[in-house]
Amino acid sequence: MADGEDGLHIAVIGASGSAGSDIVQSLERSSIPVATWTLFGAPARRRPSLELDKRVISVRGMPELDELVAAVEDADLVIFACPPDVTRALATAVVDAGPAVLDVGGALLGQGAFGVGLAGGMDEERFRESRVLSTPAAPGVLLAAVLAPLAALGLHSARGTVLQSAGVDGREGVEELSAQVVALFNHTDPRRAVYPEGLAFDIHAQVGVRDPANGWTSAERRLSLELGAALRRPPASFAFTVARVPLFTGVAASIHARFEQPVSATQVGELLAQIPLLRLEDPVPGPRHLDSTGTA
Hints:
Elements: E1 8-13, H1 18-29, E2 34-41, E3 49-51, E4 56-61, H2 65-72, E5 77-80, H3 84-97, E6 100-105, E7 113-114, H4 124-130, E8 132-136, H5 138-147, E9 155-164, H6 170-185, H7 218-231, E10 238-244, E11 251-259, H8 265-272
Helix pairs in contact: 2-3, 5-7
């Protein structure tokens, strides 16, 4: 905690994106005392400031590495809510400068502690040693939160399908999907920067680069590694097809779980009912009952 200040000094890299701004808003409304914020975004012109309940905080453009380290070296915590390649390029220098690091998205998997809040605790000793805590992206959080309680029933493995919205690609993905929808309705050529082949009214059955040696895409392999780390099981126990769908927000998943011994739907339901923020419904709602944004 910074000297003379009643609260934490937190820096966020990627504060102009959807995940970064949501993190700032959530922490500001939580019971965690935050004295000062240092926010960086790329580019800052898209969101020069964040309007919170009690204050407005400016968002700086991303500086060179030396200037960034100097700006955050007195911070208690630096949160990376940016693309994985950016996190990997900057995190080591930030940790060496002194602050603890929270990696939102699993870019630093294996370099420190790893944890999913709804799926159990983290390795606190490793966090103290490394000062790095990594959490998975949204699909990993969703699946780990559902699968972790099932370990009590002898969970053996799980497979299924994950559907990601354009929101997984941040504000740029959402804005481009919206522009593509409008362009197609107006019979004009849509912008194709984030989605070169288009996403509006289409489904991308392959997300990431496919490895010809094993058939996994980079997104699928990353998800299996995240689940293996979160649930402390071999990554090969979790095989999920990852697809992107033309929705603005939300992540959905279908899960086929295998157990070491026979279990009943009642047993599974009783365990899942104990998960915070999860609402069980029977029957499962169909498309007409889902929110128009695609959240489920």
